[in-house]
Amino acid sequence: MTVFIGLMIPFIGTTLGAACVFLIKDKLNEILEKILLGFASGVMVAASVWSLIIPSIEMSEDMGRLAFVPAASGIALGVLFLLGMDRVIPHLHAGSDEPEGSREAVSHLKKTTLLTLAVTLHNIPEGMAVGVVFAGMLSGDGRITLAAAFALTIGIAVQNFPEGAIISMPLKSAGHSSLRGFAYGTLSGVVEPIAAAITIFLTSFLTPVLPYLLSFAAGAMLYVVVEELLPEASGGKKDDITTMGFAAGFVLMMILDVALG
């Protein structure tokens, strides 16, 4: 039950963010959106370092000076995995009119579906990160505690809040009902507990490669930050607001991991 609650917390964060569509009459303020995107980026980078990459290196200490190999190779594989997903899965980012992914599939999908798929693509590595950390806790290794696992899942939930709002609000601005915007925002977060559960299941058979899986999730999350979140938050004026949001998210996630871990 404890693990189930942990896996559901990020999904709850997305749902609460999507519920903003009932509270805000128009689209998100541009400055607020920059702050939220920067904040989400900071949380993901800090989570990648403290919750995933550092534990990966610590678990590989018996390799001596080559303890960096699982972390380095895992990060590279995670980046390549998301790169491939980005090229294949059709999606459209908020504020953009140019869909990405498989051109054949893009031509047959509605804009609302493409927007939802964009956030869903972001949520896959986040779900994997939560799953692999809980798998590490369940392995009994001792390097990942229950508190550390919950620190990560709470941090992911916090950064999922703006993601839920960022997917639901543009749909409302495009003329869809608040209920539909909420439904699509919530639906985009369903993939996280599913990806987490699958990762835990696979890790139970692949315990020796846990350090690789931790860094793999980190690489995938870093790809999302650099390729999607920060570019969406940049451009125009007030870029310093994005930087402040990033710093706030990074520090908060660092505090959560160190204090609870």
Description:
The chain is mostly helical. It is 76% helix and 0% strand. It contains ten helices and no strands.
Features of the shown structure:
mainly alpha; 76% helix; 261 residues; 10 helices; globular
How many strand segments? 0
The value of Rg in angstroms is 18 Å
Number of domains: 1
In what range is the share of β-strand residues? Answer: under 5%
Helix content percent band? over 70%
Question: H/E series, N to C?
Answer: HHHHHHHHHH
Name the shape in a single word: globular
Largest sheet: none
Q: What is the end-to-end distance?
A: 20 Å
Mean pLDDT: 81
Discrete helix count: 10
Oligomer: single chain
Quick structural summary:
With 261 residues, this protein is mainly alpha-helical. It is built from 10 helices and no strands. It has helices at residues 2-18, 30-59, 68-88, 103-106, 111-138, 146-173, 178-189, 191-203, 210-233, 239-260.
SSE layout and pairing:
Blueprint: H1 2-18, H2 30-59, H3 68-88, H4 103-106, H5 111-138, H6 146-173, H7 178-189, H8 191-203, H9 210-233, H10 239-260
Helix pairs in contact: 1-5, 1-6, 1-7, 1-8, 2-3, 2-6, 2-9, 2-10, 3-9, 5-6, 5-7, 5-8, 5-9, 6-7, 6-10
